[in-house]
Amino acid sequence: MAEGRVVRSVVRTVVHTADRTLTGRQLAALLTRPPEGRFGYRELARAIRETLLDGRVALRMRLPAERELASALAVSRTTVTGAYDLLRESGYAHSRRGAGTWTALPDGQTPISLAAFHGPSDAAIDLALAAPEAPADELAEALTAASAELPRYARSQGYHPFGLPELRSAIADRYTRRGLPTLPEQILVTTGAQQALALALALLGGPGDRALAENPSYTNALDAMRGRRLRITPVPVTESGWDSGLIDAALRQTAPRLAYLIPDFHNPTGQLMPDAQRREVARAARATGTWLVVDETLTDMALDVPAPRPFAAASAAGDSEQIISVGSLSKSCWGGLRVGWVRTASRVITELARVRITADLSGSVLDQLVAVELLDRLDTILPRRAEQLRLRREALATALARHVPEWHWTLPPGGLCLWVDLGRPIASGLATRALRHGVRVEGGARFGVDVGTHEHRLRIPFALPPEIYDTAAERLAAALAGAPARFSDPDLPDWVA
Question: Which of 148, 175, 166, 145 has the alpha carbon at shortest distance from 370?
């Protein structure tokens, strides 16, 4: 237990409270300039609202002082004053005497959320789950081989809280081959990556603690953090990727106990974090005592680039000591297998296993034996999977371009999803209408840290057979045809007659 006390003393760092403030230069870099190049107060209000709705700026973030932003944008202070007034009038900002102007959302602007695992009707096309089917031949072979091994394990009690030794060794060997030397003692086998994340959150954080997360991010991870009652500090991920300066500022201002990142083909944007930026983030996190929980479940979904190295392998030696890597076979093989893992320092693995025992003594021996066999076949499975996903990505993009040409997206270099820009904040309503037209899809708000953001986005996976997407896109277009032409605008009052 002495070792456990040491680990807890490391992870229970002191949280310093600080204002969440944007500088004038930071906000100026995030704004989309109008075609004429110079902001009027209406254009500035609209641009700030757009950064809020698409998650580049978080809710309850203090905006720069008027004089500071005017200087950064080379406009008059009167222009900034008018823009802030317009934002306050429309509910996108509020002011506190002596405390400045803070971002907000209008009353009642809440996304309509669809439960991710409510089954659609038989006639519906399910575009909500980013998970391909199993590789049938390799899964059948793995099941046969695992079944032959099972009698040998049936003579024991069957409990392996750390995971089967053979599977821990196989996972460790794969990390080593990918450039991160790893021992079996540094691996904990879990019931999927979601349990791995839940264990890390339970060990590292408690109610009221700060946690940094990308915005948007994987919705089930955000729900897990909310369930732990963590206070989430968002940092944006855009079509340009991550902003190291904003991450560094968020770390320094809030000193979170942990940060949850998806650097490999980020879900839902598909972005891939460069090695140099990984080193910067790891260095900044080490300086604030923040543990990095790195979700690498999509690492193997490399389509147009080589599969990235583990995040910890790109970090400096000292900066990797507080990195917890999470992985699974759900995307590369099959979600129904429910085998995931944690890779971190052996002393932390021991603490995570103690947490795991309180809820789940051990995973299925048969599933773990199947996982051993599948890991041995990954060099065959992954090239086929990549080719399959390239064809499906192309089919989805072609179908969307044909039926909804006004939508825009960037083809990701890997992963399983398109992050589609609808051009207007209608995603939640459109998702509801799409279900009536036989398509289940998730609006961008489901992936936002703050309620009501990313309303102009849909996450559309390309995990289904190619022939499905033309029908799916046609149904989405039919749902779109009945969507309202205009939603609330900061310049125009809502009214009815």
Answer: 145
Does domain 136-376 sit in CATH 3.30.1490.100?
A: no
Whole-number CA gyration radius for the chain: 24
Q: What is the DSSP letter of 307?
A: P
- Comparing 1-15, 331-345, 359-373, which segment has the lowest mean pLDDT? 1-15
Q: What number does CATH give the domain 125-130+382-481?
A: 3.90.1150.10
Average model confidence (pLDDT) across the chain: 87
Three-state DSSP state, 215: strand
What SS3 class is residue 328?
strand
3-state secondary structure of 458: strand
In whole angstroms, what is the distance from residue 496 CA to residue 40 CA? 29
- Distance CA(256)–CA(285), nearest Å, equals 9
| Tokens (6 digits) for 266 | 């980020």
What are the distances in angstroms from CA 160 to CA 70, 347, 367?
62, 17, 12
Least confident of 17-21, 91-95, 145-149: 17-21
Selection from 343, 218, 195 nearest residue 268 by Cα? 218
Convert 21-36 to b/e letters by CB count within 10 Å (16 or more is b).
Answer: ebebebbbebbeeeee
Continuous segment of H or E residues that includes residue 11: helix 2-11
